[in-house]
Amino acid sequence: MERIETYKENFVSYLNEKITLKEPANLYEPIHYILQIGGKRLRPVLTLMTCDLFNGNVKQAYDAALGIEIFHNFTLVHDDIMDSAPIRRGKETVHKKWDTNTGILSGDAMLIMAYQCFENYEPVVYKKLLKLFSKTSLEVCEGQQLDVDFESRMDVNIPEYIQMITYKTSVLVAAAMKMGAIIAEVDAIEAERIYEFGLNLGIAFQLQDDYLDTFGDEALFGKQIGGDIAENKKTFLYLKAIEVCGIDDKEKLMGFYDANAKNDNKIEKVTQIFNNNNIAEITIQEIERFTNKSFEILDKLSISNEKKVILKNFGNSLMKRTI
């Protein structure tokens, strides 16, 4: 078993080997830029780690891990355009550093590059990986559309929100893990269990992202704090506040999220309402709930207890992250 902390280093070395600058520069420089400005590399690490946990050949998992990472960054480039976001990982977003058209076209190229990463796998494995990747890619688009729809809806509920983040974020985490299992050639039941583990972990991960967007440290988080509030995103924090706060705070909160309203110090005022209603603590409890749901699946996996501990420790580390 490789040590978990080495997966990221080894993957970044592989990425640097495969992703090089070439012509036309205005197409490939933005791709190189977004892939080089850091990030947690969570998804490729999960692909490599899962393959290793199931005694697969980790070297064979690098291409799938690269495909997952390129696709994830493609979605970030296009999401930042849709959200008019100025900062990503503490740096200018692609469309701000270049322009919107460059962001769109470079993102499109990244999607194609992601599919190319699977071309070297043997036919049986290739078919399984590509089927999962296409399904997941479409679900991510569905989740993004739901996210956009929610911005103009005032009747979004928490189950709908969980469904949205499952598609937008969690399915890619789950697919990253299942790809590692597929490459290790485990049986279908075991691959589906690790998918469910990743699905619940991915939900917890996104809820943590929601929490950090409001209560995180901008210098550590790498994105503008309060961006979700500024964009009227109906995150778990907002929806839970609507559910638990008194009538006065509820009316104020809905007023702040009225797309036609202009409010000075909106982020500060909404955050204060969240603080008044213990939303930070409630969100942390929800993060723990989904993390624990993922841990319950570990008992069903046919890997050693030692390897289950590795997965559990990894999940706990995500729950306590600040970036």
What order do the helices and strands come in, and which of them pair?
Elements: H1 4-18, H2 25-36, H3 42-53, H4 62-83, E1 87-88, E2 91-92, H5 94-97, H6 100-116, H7 123-151, H8 158-183, H9 188-215, H10 218-221, H11 227-230, H12 236-244, H13 247-256, H14 266-276, H15 279-298, H16 305-319
Antiparallel strand pairs: 1-2
Helix pairs in contact: 1-3, 2-6, 3-4, 3-8, 4-6, 4-7, 4-8, 7-8, 8-9, 9-15, 12-13, 12-15, 15-16
Quickly list its features.
single chain; 323 residues; mainly alpha; Farnesyl Diphosphate Synthase; two-stranded antiparallel ribbon; 2 strands; 1% strand
Tell me about this structure.
The chain has 323 residues and is mainly α. The chain has one domain: Farnesyl Diphosphate Synthase, CATH 1.10.600.10. It has a two-stranded antiparallel ribbon with strand order 1-2. A hairpin with a 2-residue loop joins β1 and β2. α12 packs antiparallel against α13. The longest helix has 29 residues. It is globular, with a radius of gyration of 20 Å. The model has no long low-confidence stretch (mean pLDDT 92).
